[in-house]
Every structure is written in structure tokens, then in C-alpha cells.
Write a structure and sequence with these properties.
Blueprint lengths: L3 E6 L3 H12 L21 E8 L9 H5 L20 E3 L29 H8 L3 E4 L6 H14 L2 E4 L9 H10 L2 E3 L9 H14 L3 E11 L2 H5 L7 H12 L8 E9 L6 E11 L5 E11 H21 L4 E2 L1 H7 L9 H12 L10
Parallel strand pairs: 1-2, 1-4, 2-3, 4-5, 5-6, 6-11, 7-8
Antiparallel strand pairs: 7-9, 9-10
Length: about 375
């Protein structure tokens, strides 16, 4: 039986939830999964073979140990961890660590290792990785593009979970297409999070003839993602991806939208709270207002989408598809190459899986 050999970039809370989930679902439990089977791949077919980070408490440690190290704070829901035999390698830092992290206690912020970075392309090749998932912090533009280039050189498909525009950038898209490597991106959605709820409600307003005049989405949390995003200069692409995901559900661009992180609240840890308001006008211009509070565990909430995106990458590669996967990207990502409705994205994913397999997925 062949498997999906996964390389992880960024051994933080999201990686922790993903790797825990690989163990949690290895016995065939279906509850909480979006899809059980994707192109013949089950969750149990994903195997972590390489991992990269820059924090001194994680580099050089077994993956299972690193995932338990500060500043990770996501909940634990399994006793065993897939990938215990993988040692976390030192990656290049570039812009991956925001300067203001040094102003905060080590338990909640990053502490860069002084080790020399490894040859990432060499590690990818030697590990036999065929999919790379990018979990770098928001604002790591240079670092994300470095790993995208490494994936191309090593012949590895990519899932880009952060808001650096790679899949949705025409030049990067063509580079993946010309190499025959699938990519799903950019900026992972939660399984049921602020963006998908906001987009769905905005679509509902539009479908029922209600004009959306103004809307905001404010998010608070206490993990390193929210600490990292305290600096506005790291937020530009994040605001774009979240805003486009919602505005694409509206018939015009006249609505006033304010979407993005609001504040870092340390004691919330991995709990994310969304405060959402939509103001609209209905029949005869009469006002309609909606307010909503959504509370989720942030990192586990994205892991289900990541699991499926990884498997779609593998299934697409089996079918000889390269470049951005439009339907999976639209379903799982905030800033895909093409924004699609939920129904169109689901139909597109189904079409992808009905294409003939060119390379054997299962022996």
C-alpha cells in the first residue's frame, strides 16, 4: 500500500492538531471529518516524514516532543502521536520570526535557535516527501516563498495554509503547473470558523434580497498566531484574504467591510472568539441587523480542512494534474486562485476525483 509522505513546515499549534488527528482517526473513526475517502486515500494513509521549525525548543527534538513544547498551547485529544520517529530540522528563518516576539515571555512567543539551517531540498528528497504543508506564521512572506521554491526543486506538491499568495499568484501558479505539481492554497479556512460563517451569512443576505450595507468581523485569541498579528505590517495579506472570501459572496463591492484580528488575549490560549455583525436593508429599505459570537478551538478547527487538502494534492498528482487545484482551493482556502460557491467547489472536487489515475495510488 502506498501512502502520502508529508513534510511539515512550522511545528506549531496547527501542526500539533493535524498530527494528533492522524493518530486519532487511524482506527477509522468518522466523526468530525469532512470526507472519509478522497481518491482512495484515508486519513491513515498520511505519514509524516519530515518537519522544519526554527524554535530552539523544537529543533533537534523528536516531532512528538516538539509538538508538546512551548509556545504550543492547543488542546491534546490523543495519547499517541504519529511521526514520533521524525526529528525536527532547522529551517531558514528569513522573516518567520517577528521582532516584537522578543518582548514577550518565552512561554508564549518564539525563541529562534542558533543552529545552521539544513538543506531543505535535500531533506525533502531523502525523506521521500510528496506533499509539503506550510504552517509558517502570518507575515512570513520571504520564508513561505523559500519553501515553495524548495518544494518545486524537490518535486513535492504543496498545501499553503498561510496568507502569502502563492497558489493565487499567476507566476507561482505557472511554476507549479510547468513542474506538474499540484498546489492547494492560499490561507486555510477553519472547518466551521469565522470566515466560512461570515461568508455563508453574507450569501444568505444576498440570496434573500437583503442589501448588506456594513459588516465587521473581529477575532480575539491567545495563541502565537494572534500574538504574531499584533503588528499591522504583518497583516496586509491576511486582511486581503479574509475580506475577499466574504466580499466574493456579495453581488457588488459597495458594502463596507471591516474584517481581521482585533486583539491578543493571552488567557484565551488556542480558543478563538469571533464577534460578527451584519447590517442590511430589506423590503422598502427597512433595517435588518444580525450579531453573532462564535467560539472555537482555533487549531483543531483547521486540521480537518488540512487533512482533506493534503489528500486532494495526492489524488491530483496521481491523475497527472499540476498547478493550482481550483475547486479544493476554493473549498478549503480563503484566498484561492478563483472564488467559487460552495456548490461549485464541491462539484469541481467530485470531477477531479473522477479523472483517470495515471500513476498508481494503491498497489
Amino acid at each position: 500500500m502506498s501512502d502520502i509522505r508529508l513534510a511539515i513546515v512550522g511545528v506549531g499549534n496547527c501542526a500539533s492538531s493535524l498530527v494528533q488527528g492522524l493518530d486519532y482517526y487511524k482506527n477509522g473513526d468518522r466523526s468530525g471529518l469532512i470526507q472519509q475517502d478522497i481518491g482512495g486515500y484515508q486519513v491513515g494513509d498520511i505519514r509524516v516524514v519530515a518537519a522544519f521549525d526554527v524554535d530552539e525548543r523544537k529543533v533537534g527534538k523528536p516531532l512528538g516532543t516538539a509538538l508538546k513544547s512551548a509556545p504550543n498551547c492547543t488542546p491534546w485529544f490523543t495519547r499517541d502521536l504519529t511521526g514520533e520517529g521524525v526529528v525536527v530540522q532547522m529551517g531558514p528563518i528569513y522573516d518567520g520570526v517577528a521582532p516584537h516576539m522578543a518582548e514577550y515571555d518565552a512561554d508564549v512567543s518564539f525563541r529562534p535557535s542558533r543552529q545552521e539551517p539544513v538543506d531543505v531540498v535535500k531533506v525533502l528528497r531523502e525523506s521521500g516527501a510528496n506533499v509539503l504543508i506550510n504552517y509558517l506564521p502570518v507575515g512570513s512572506d520571504q520564508a513561505a516563498k523559500y519553501y515553495a521554491g524548495a518544494a518545486l526543486e524537490a518535486g513535492v506538491a504543496m498545501v499553503n495554509c498561510m496568507p502569502v499568495f502563492i497558489s493565487s499568484d499567476p507566476e507561482w501558479a505557472e511554476r507549479f503547473r510547468s513542474k506538474g505539481l499540484p498546489i492547494v492554497g492560499d490561507d486555510i479556512k477553519s472547518q466551521l470558523g469565522a470566515t466560512i460563517v461570515h461568508r455563508t451569512l453574507a450569501q444568505l443576505f444576498a440570496d434573500r434580497g437583503i442589501t448588506v450595507k456594513r459588516s465587521y468581523q473581529l477575532n480575539t485569541g491567545g495563541n502565537t498566531d494572534f500574538l504574531n498579528m499584533l503588528r499591522q505590517e504583518r497583516l496586509k495579506s491576511k486582511r486581503i484574504s479574509k475580506t475577499e472570501a466574504v466580499s466574493s459572496a456579495l453581488p457588488d463591492n459597495k458594502s463596507q467591510l471591516h474584517i481581521g484580528p482585533s486583539d491578543y488575549v493571552p488567557w484565551l490560549q488556542d480558543n478563538k472568539c469571533c464577534f460578527l455583525r451584519i447590517e442590511g436593508e430589506g423590503f422598502a429599505g427597512q433595517p435588518i441587523e444580525l450579531e453573532l459570537r462564535l467560539s472555537v478551538m482555533d487549531s483543531p478547527n483547521s486540521a480537518g480542512c488540512a487533512m482533506d487538502a493534503i489528500r486532494y494534492c495526492a489524488a491530483a498528482r496521481d491523475r497527472g494534474l499540476g498547478g493550482p487545484l481550483e475547486a479544493p482551493s476554493a473549498f478549503f482556502m480563503k484566498r484561492p486562485p478563483v472564488q467559487l460557491t460552495l456548490e461549485a467547489a464541491q462539484a469541481g472536487m467530485e470531477t477531479l476525483l473522477h479523472l483517470p489515475v495515471l500513476s498508481p495510488a494503491k498497489a
